[in-house]
Amino acid sequence: MLLRGFAFSAVASMCLASAQTPAPDSAELGSRLANGKAGEFLVDPGTRIPLTLINSVSTKHSAEGDRVYLETAFPILVKGRIVIPPGSYVTGTVTQVKRPGRVKGRGEIYVRFDSLTLPNGVTRDFRARIGTMDGRASEEFDRAEGKIRSEGNKGGDARRVGEAAGAGATIGAIAGSGAGGHPGLGAGLGAAAGAAAGLIGVFASRGPDAILAKGSTVEMLLDRPVAFDESELDFSGATRRVSVDSGGGPAPSQKNSGSAIPRRRFPF
What we know:
By secondary structure, the chain is an alpha+beta fold.
């Protein structure tokens, strides 16, 4: 009985001591995560990494599953040390493509980033998305969904119809003057026919495509930490990066670059 009582008292004392040991608070856990283990360098979630496109993708020529190739354009430092140097390679995947509509609806494209390869060959697989786009781009970026949308073209459609109507009015006026001396009637008929031809052209053509052109810059937004050991950050023997043609950067606006209205003679 004496031994049983002693054992019970010892167990109770251990439980009480364990209960009185304070658990680490959230600030302490955050500090541990930020500092990482000894010799570990952690790139935090939310880090933005500037990238330059090596190839072009667009809603016209790309399909779901197509690969996107990029390289880092600015060094990323952790604890005062470069962990992702410029010229590191990033690969991504086109996960959604939507062509622009013929009457309404903009083109949309979504790119997911899959892996990072440092100049010394060290590779990390992860998932990330675009955080911001090149400020020169005419496309619109949906920050909430990470999608890139093509620009609208209502002004271009109205211009095409107006140009066709004006051309028809001119031809109609000339034809009316020569035939029966009624230039006003001919101009009216020509304008109506030209406007109809312009509308047919609008309905037959799609709106501007969304394009991520070679040489454009985007920011990759990390949504999870990426860790490297100190031994993986030796770039002294890394293969020298091959210079890549930067391309022309973002594609120019397509708002007023619709198909030209075909010149034709109107049957008056």
